[in-house]
Amino acid sequence: MTVSLVVAVAVLYGVGTYLLLQRHLTRVVIGLAVISHGANLLLLLVGGPAGRSPIVNGGTGEYSDPLPQALAMTAIVISFAVTALLLAFAFRSWQITGSDEVEDDVEDRRIAGQAGHVHDDELDSVGTEA
Amino acid sequence: MSDILIPLPVAIALLGAAISLGLGRRPWAQRIFGLLVLGTMVAISAILLSRVSDGSVLATELGGWSAPIGIVLAVDLLSGLMLVTSLAALVTVLVYAIGSPRPIEQARYFYPVYLVMAAGVSMCFLTTDLFNLFVAFEITLTSSYVLIGLGRAREQVRHGVTYVVISLLASSLFITAIAITYAATGTVNMADLAVKLVDIDPHLRTALGALFLVVFGIKAAIFPLFFWLPDSYPTAPAPVTAIFAGLLTKIGVYAIIRSQSLLFAGPGESNLLLIVAGATMLVGVLGAIAQDDVKRILSFHVVSQIGYLIFGLGLLTMAGLASTVYSVVHHILVTTAIFMVGGLIEQATGTAALRRLGGLVRSTPLLGALFLLTALSFAGIPPFSGFIAKLSVVQAGLEVGADWTTAVALLVSILTLFSMTKIWAGAFWGDPEDATIVVRRPSRVMTGAAAAAVVVSLAVAALAAPIYDLSERAAISLIDPALYVEAVLP
Q: How many CA atoms lie within 13 A of B389 on its CB side?
């Protein structure tokens, strides 16, 4: 049970990192959400083995550790709020440019242009302001 | 009871933000209310600082749960100094923002979000709990995402996204680090961790230390994790850039100081931190020299100056830490001031590009004077506070024998002066290079706020003896955290 959760955490981090490296902002948002799911699952995982009873007044036997669960709850709420904000950024980017692709950095393009990798006419299309 | 004062800065700021949101239809009431709230916070933090100025530690339990399960807030000299300095910077920038004629700062969401950021910043300095520190970071960062996106121009969206994504990645890593720490020790209370981390596998401890350094290093913009800063900061409105440059990176530095001294301090100096410090100083200043835009030059200097702070910390000696604490205070105030002046240059001329500027010393002599004073302090020329900060860190470095990093620090200091001279020669001396630029008088309120910030940063040099004295006492308690641990753990 625990080993499969560990594998799940690893897969979530891996998939999230891959998505984070994409150019489309929506994929980046999903990637961040997936990574934070992985982190939350990891928090749950460190609370000890599964199947223990929740902490209740007057209960007996071994409790499951409530602290990581509380931490995961807080982290979920925060990542929800921030994902919403990032989606607003993606929407704004789509409104301005018509796509949600993360734009090239103007300065990077200029340096690439000096090195001869990008043609000047392409440079003009991204604007000249630094 | 002094304890009741400790959570007050956070509580007042959050409550103030809620009320400020309700005042959205009355702009002047909102502005005055914002100043009142921040003024009260400054007063409370000054009282807290005076109570801990003898080197004692005040702590209070939230919600009646005791440590290590409950969340404990504590003030020691380091957090007291950081709190007072940051709030002073927040107040001056708020006045600067009130005077700003650009319509975006007048949006009714600016003031509530600004107060929420003040709450987050205060909580970062007060908390003794790693997870609570994460929450405080998130409060600060979420409000900073909103501030950097205010205005919603194309540039801001492009670079704001970089900033938000990189910060979110750091936050996810932060949770990961907290989870692993909890798995290894069963606690997230920093005082408890200081005791328990000693007993765990030293390799795991090193790995955790490195992970936390990466997490906080992204926020503090140390080498090689700084690349987002010079892109994103200059695109925001001038007051927002000023407070980001002055404060937000310093929260990361504070977290690095706290975690590396309390949790992961090894015997002797940390070679990793010294190498990181040297690279941060050098790469930052070289980046600055290559730039043409005033705000971008200054943003690279922020990175470069962070290196000096990490240098003092990496030495892990009393002298090194005292220098870091003094430098943080100096750096928050001077950076805020110099970015405010940079914003004024842009406001007066409509551009921040050096190739278009020139001759400003004749058209706006006051601006020239303000820039000169902060630039000299920034570059570390005596008798300004930057000189004291750099002298102390160089002395501390030579004491330990960290010759290479000390040499880099001295070289970078010359290059910083060179870069400041470049701004001076490009923007203030000579003749106006672009005849189309009409120099307007910058807003009186903004100039006044910038002048106040410059005066406050000069006061750090005038009051160097007592402030350095406090820094040394703060360093003593950082080297020997027994008092801190005792106050937090009952």
A: 34
Collect all residues with Cβ–Cβ distance below 8 Å to B261 and sequence separation of at least 6. B313, B316, B321, B478, B479, B481
Most distant CA atoms of chain A, gap in Å: 75
Q: Which positions in chain A touch B152 (Cβ < 8 Å)?
A: 92
Distance CA B69, CA B62 (A): 11
Which among B142, B161, B231 has the least Cβ separation from residue A81?
A: B142
Is residue B94 within 8 A of residue B247, CB to CB? The reply is no
Tokens 């590009």, located at residue: B353
B58: tokens are 């005040």
Helix (H, G, I), strand (E, B) or coil at B81: helix
Distance CA B251, CA B121 (A): 7
The rounded distance, in Å, linking the Cα atoms of B111 and B122 is 17
B37-61 mean pLDDT: 89
Q: Which residues pair with residue B58 across a beta bridge?
A: B75
Range among B152-161, B202-211, B427-436 with highest mean pLDDT value: B202-211
Distance CA B450, CA B431 (A): 25
Q: Whose CA is closest to A130, among B356, B368, B165?
A: B356
**Cα–Cα distance, B430 to B424 (Å, whole number):** 10
Where on the phi/psi map is residue B11: left (φ > 0), alpha (ψ -120 to 50), or beta? Answer: alpha
Residues of B in contact with A103 (CB under 8 A): 158
Supply the ipTM of this predicted assembly: 0.84
- B27-52 vs B77-99: helix axis angle to the nearest 10? 160
Which is it for strands B72-75 and B58-61: parallel, antiparallel or unpaired?
antiparallel
Contact across the interface for B149 and A92, Cβ inside 8 Å: yes
With the C-alpha atoms ordered A78, A83, A89, A91, is the resulting torsion angle positive or negative? negative
Place of tokens 């959760």: A5
For residue B108, what is the DSSP state?
T
- Distance between CA B171 and CA A15 in Å, rounded? 17
Backbone angles phi, psi at B328, to 5 degrees: -60, -45
The SS3 call for residue A60 is coil
Best residue of B116, B123, B161, B211 to probe chain A, by most A CBs closer than 10 Å: B161
pLDDT tens string B345-387 = 888 887 778 778 877 778 888 888 899 999 988 888 888 888 9
User: What is the DSSP annotation of B50-73?
Assistant: HHHTTS--EEEESTTPPTTTS-EE
- E-assigned strand segments in B351-461: none
Please list every residue in chain B whose beta carbon sits closer than 8 Å to the beta carbon of residue A26: none
Beta bridge partner(s), residue B61: B72
Indicate the pTM of the whole model.
Answer: 0.91
Interface check for A74 against chain B (CB to CB < 8 A): the answer is: yes
Which value, in Å, is the radius of gyration of the alpha carbons in chain A? 22
H or E element in which residue B141 lies:
helix B130-149
Give yes or no for a cis peptide into B68 (omega within 30° of 0).
yes
By the 10 Å C-beta count (0-12 exposed, 13-18 middle, 19+ buried), B183 is classed as: middle
Contact call for residues B393 and B311 (beta carbons, < 8 A): yes
- Which residue in this structure is represented by tokens 């807030």? B73
Give the Cα separation of B189 and B173 in Å (integer): 18
User: Which residue in A25, A40, A78 is closest to B138 by CB distance?
Assistant: A78
The amino acid present at B314, given as its one-letter code, is G
